[in-house]
Specification:
This protein is an alpha+beta fold and about 220 residues long. The protein is built from five helices and four strands.
Length: about 220
């Protein structure tokens, strides 16, 4: 037997040995292998248990409130009381409510916005509208848009489960006040007025009524 054949036999023997070793370690895989079922038994815990927050930081809160702040903690409590509550969804609704309520007040149409006003705010609005009517003043106003809107503060009462969220608005509108004779006494038809408000909305979290009410106004 020449040396070339002897070398081939030695290499073949080594190859067979390696194949047998690999089969013992990896098993035999023939074509597609379905994924193995993972045992549902919990892994043995070692050391102290650590609290894990699913999904990590809640960006729906942290996009609008500083992490660890009173407002962020209040918003988290609101979500615990009502899992379907979303801060971004609330702010989107607040933007629409701001235009609707502001224009209803400016035009003196309180009946259409009364369901969205707390009792104190409604009474204040009604007094202002009544005073304007007694003076013979009328307001012509057109809403241009919301230039800025930020969450100013949030609070949550764990006893009553009432949530309060204050929102800072910077709106733009045209604003004209006319007297009985129709003369302009304030504002301009062509000039856009910038309106700054901090409005506080409140609602019982988890209640069947989805509507928030305006309970306080300020600047």
């Amino acid at each position: 037997m020449n040396s070339s054949i002897l070398q081939l036999l030695v290499l073949a023997g080594i190859a067979i040995f390696l194949i047998l070793r690999l089969k013992n370690v990896l098993g035999t895989r023939d074509g597609y292998e379905a994924p193995r079922e993972v045992s549902q038994q919990p892994a043995e815990r070692r050391g102290p248990e650590l609290e894990v927050i699913e999904g990590g930081p809640d960006r729906d809160i942290l996009d609008h409130a500083e992490e660890g702040s009173d407002s962020a903690l209040a918003l988290a409590s609101m979500k615990s009381a009502e899992p379907s509550f979303g801060v971004s969804d609330f702010l989107q609704g607040a933007r629409g409510a701001y235009e609707m309520i502001l224009m209803g007040f400016e035009k003196g149409d309180l009946a259409s916005i009364k369901p969205f006003l707390g009792s104190d705010v409604y009474e204040t609005f009604a007094e202002v509208v009544e005073a304007r009517e007694k003076q013979g003043l009328t307001i012509q106003s057109e809403f241009v848009g919301v230039r800025e809107m930020t969450l100013h503060e949030a609070r949550f009462d764990k006893t009553s489960r009432e949530g309060e969220i204050a929102v800072r608005f910077v709106g733009e509108l045209t604003y004209v006040v006319r007297d009985r004779a129709g003369e302009i006494v304030e504002g301009s038809e062509s000039q856009i007025k910038r309106q700054k408000d901090i409005w506080t909305f409140a609602r019982g979290m988890g209640s069947n009524d989805p509507n928030w009410q305006l309970v306080a106004t300020g600047e």
